[in-house]
Amino acid sequence: MSEESIIVVGGGIAGLTGAALLSKEGYQVTLVEAHSQLGGCAGTFKRGSYTFDVGATQVAGLERGGIHHRLFNYLDIPLPDAKILDPGCSVTLGDGSRPINLWHDPLRWQKERQEQFPGSEIFWSLCSKIHESNWEFVERDPILPVRNFWDLSQLIRAIRPSNLLTGFLSKLTIADLLTITGCHKDRRLRSFLDLQLKLYSQEPASRTAALYGATVLQMAQSPRGLWHLHGSMQILSDLLKDSFLRDGGSLLIGHRVTKIIRKENSNVFDVKVLDRRKNLLQMKASDIVFSLPPQSLLDLIPIDGGLSTTYRESIKKLPKPSGAVVFYGALRRVDLPVDCPGHIQVFDEHFGSLFISISLENDQRAPIGMATLIASVFVDIDQWSNLDSQAYTRKKSVVSKQIRAILDHKFDLLETSWDHQELSTPRSFERWTGRPSGIVGGLGQHPDQFGPFGLSSRTPLKGLWLCGDSIYPGEGTAGVSQSALMVVRQLLESKGRHLNIPVFN
């Protein structure tokens, strides 16, 4: 392998996007993925005739001008077949009131929220102004956080007067916006916001950055939207893989990076990789794009491997991400309610938020007349990490029954309704994705770790770049794709080149 080559670590959507872009730009790129399948948390698995999405079940950014649309157009690959979700989600607060539907049509959503939360329009109007300002900013591809003059130049280029105004809100939370608009006494509105924000920022309204929360609360509405992929979430990975291989990329599936070292006064990384047969491969690269959680660096780069003690300590001090428990089930479609929404969020006294995704008829996830159902809950990873095998098995069984009971009650299901059921835990995600302790979703979007105050894609170790859900604000395939675009632009700039992806108006 040439010393001018680039190694991308991790074959999730972020790593695949970065690898595909770099290959299209003519670089010699090797993508190393430890699992036997690409996709990471946006991957899939099969159980008989059923296909289950591992984690992510919906996609943002497929609309004209959205991040996936922009990148796929640039990579000259087709957009996946997808259907807009309408409603994007149906939220049940557990207070006996009817569900809150997040309609795609902005006027219909306005009518819905006026009926559900009377007197709150001033809050939603402020969120809308922030949302519009944010998109003006994001579509110009700013670099955040700023770490050098070029980063600063890209930030300044993206700023407009409206961004300067909303910038004054950068240290506020969504709860602060409720107070400013006089809506803080509406407990039902607050409950709704806490549920929705937990999905996207892993934080409640009191801890979600206002600039981030105002945008994700309106992602389901036109001209943007949430999409359901025909087939499975794996389609995104397959398309990016095809682009990567078409442009000369080298793919190492079932290979695990075990050590990364950059010796003092060296311009080259030495990378050790174990193949499927446990043979040790020695590789070299001028740059490494690391798409795994940054916490993984602590195990892969030894103390003398080039990463400063200060930076190592800063990674250790990152807020602890959540884990997830996910129930995967298959059942008869006739036993589900007529016109059942594809995505439902339910408040539960024990779990807090339960997010449910149900396959559509003819979307290739289940045979005709059947449906897959995925129900996920964020959990504290410490609740699962220190259990012995017997305690783990017992806890897994208890949690599975608890989630089944919620689903049976919600949809009035019987034992005979179910054809398949299983549960994954943080330990399962650790085995599947290689993420430390099975953490998912990146860093919570608190004002102190959002945007200009977040973790930079540039590391102090020259040539080592970070991307993924801990870098760009927001998880999901759209957020990690934005992070990949940002890091590729930075990497190319470091080599005297520029990457400009067209913006569609």
Automatic annotation (TrEMBL):
<dbReference type="Pfam" id="PF01593">
    <property type="entry name" value="Amino_oxidase"/>
</dbReference>
<dbReference type="InterPro" id="IPR036188">
    <property type="entry name" value="FAD/NAD-bd_sf"/>
</dbReference>
<dbReference type="GO" id="GO:0016116">
    <property type="term" value="P:carotenoid metabolic process"/>
</dbReference>
<dbReference type="GO" id="GO:0016491">
    <property type="term" value="F:oxidoreductase activity"/>
</dbReference>
<feature type="domain" description="Amine oxidase">
    <location>
        <begin position="13"/>
        <end position="491"/>
    </location>
</feature>
<dbReference type="InterPro" id="IPR014104">
    <property type="entry name" value="Myxoxanthophyll_desat_CrtD"/>
</dbReference>
<dbReference type="InterPro" id="IPR002937">
    <property type="entry name" value="Amino_oxidase"/>
</dbReference>
<keyword id="KW-0413">Isomerase</keyword>
<dbReference type="InterPro" id="IPR045892">
    <property type="entry name" value="CrtISO-like"/>
</dbReference>
<dbReference type="GO" id="GO:0008767">
    <property type="term" value="F:UDP-galactopyranose mutase activity"/>
</dbReference>
<protein>
    <submittedName>
        <fullName>UDP-galactopyranose mutase</fullName>
        <ecNumber>5.4.99.9</ecNumber>
    </submittedName>
</protein>
